[in-house]
Amino acid sequence: MDRDNTIVCKETLQYFGAMLPSLSHEAKNMLAIINENAGLMNDFILMAQKGKTLNLDRLSSLSATIRKQVVRLNTLITDVRQAADGIDNKTQDICLVHHARQVSELLSKKAAMRSIQFDVHAMEEPILIHTRPVLLLHIMWVCLDYAMHVGEQGRCIGLTVEKRAENAVVLMSGIDKLIPDSITAIMPDEQRNTVLSALNAELLIDGNKKTLLLKIRNHHA
Question: Each residue of 72-107: pLDDT tens digit?
């Protein structure tokens, strides 16, 4: 049990180590957009002080852009706080769809460098599960990171979140060159088995459909 706990702690730290640079980049992008639009608004104020007519539609558009980035940044901060709350790996009630979107957004910069896009599909109703959120984010992260590097550039990788009987499922499709050994390449056997056991989950490969399937048992109704 002590070894399992050591592995879980190590994998948790690895997730934070991989995630924080991406999160920092996203936050800087948002702040840069806010700063740019605030500067443009200041230009309009200077023009008005010189007696020029204000373009109210343009001013409204700048304001809307700033508000949008503030909302995005607030969501990002909330996600970080929730991840920090889960660093002790206690189980929590979470929305699986939200976490799938969160991982895809944090990986978006790395994906863009390979001209890869993520396409998230989900049922309209929330899919709630009781799990260890940071470990769940970590296993999805390493799966998607692997998916980006084992195929052609310019692809679309799909994430489909759905319910199947008593299971919650995340399907990751559009992954080229999937073979049985891909599971070990994603994460070494001991670490992977320990993480999946802690999540009460399975990670399966369908090479013909170029799909990884993460199945989490006993989700909430």
Answer: 899 888 877 777 776 676 788 889 998 898 888 888
Q: What is the pTM of this model?
A: 0.79
Cβ neighbors of 129 (< 8 A, separation 6 or more) are 93, 94, 96, 168, 216, 219, 220
Largest CA distance in the chain: 74
Please report the DSSP string for 68-106 in residue order.
HHHHHHHHHHHHHHHHHHTTT---EEEEHHHHHHHHHHH
Q: Which helix (H) or strand (E) holds 8?
A: helix 2-49
What does the pLDDT look like over 62-74, one tens digit per residue?
999 999 999 989 9
State whether CATH 1.10.760.10 applies to domain 92-217: no
Query: Token pair of 220, please?
Result: 């909430």
Where along the chain do its domains lie? 2-85, 92-217
How far is it, in rounded angstroms, from Cα 114 to Cα 116? 5
